[in-house]
Design a protein that fits this description.
- The chain has one domain: Transcription Regulator spoIIAA.
- It contains 4 helices and 5 strands.
- It has helices at about 30-40, 60-75, 85-95, 105-110, and strands at about 5-10, 15-25, 45-55, 75-80, 100-105.
- Helix 3 (about 85-95) links the parallel strand 4 (about 75-80) and strand 5.
- The protein starts with a strand and ends in an 8-residue tail after the last helix.
Length: about 120
């Protein structure tokens, strides 16, 4: 399945990357490139909206972890939004729910305390 990626900047320095489809080794380079682009744009908050993602493999998880590391290096926030049960389960089983700040909606994520959570 192809991966659809769109990015919007509701207010600088916040960028929201919306993803739809399956995030796996065959298509995760597009997401990596978009995350790198947004980091280069010096965003302070990068929100990755996974609500329309139905599957993530280990390579896709690696791209998300890489994005988190890059944002932390710049003292920024890297936030995930996920509601799909399968994706949430993958994050739980991998232990990444302890590493990422994961929210139900972009609004909830952006309203969260920047000092709280792991993101």
């Amino acid at each position: 399945m192809s991966l659809q990626i769109s990015t919007r900047v509701p207010s600088d320095p916040v960028a929201i990357i919306e993803i739809a489809g399956e995030l796996d080794s065959s298509n995760c380079n597009d997401l990596r490139e978009e995350i790198n682009h947004q980091v280069a744009e010096t965003r302070q908050t990068l929100l990755v909206d996974l609500r329309a993602v139905t599957f993530v493999d280990s390579t896709g998880l690696g791209v998300l972890v890489g994005g988190l590391k890059k944002m932390r290096e710049r003292e920024g926030r890297f936030i995930l939004v996920s509601t799909h049960p399968r994706v949430k389960r993958i994050l739980e089983v991998s232990g990444l729910v302890k590493v990422f700040s994961v929210f139900q909606t972009p609004e909830e994520a952006l309203a969260s305390d920047p000092g709280g959570g792991a993101g």
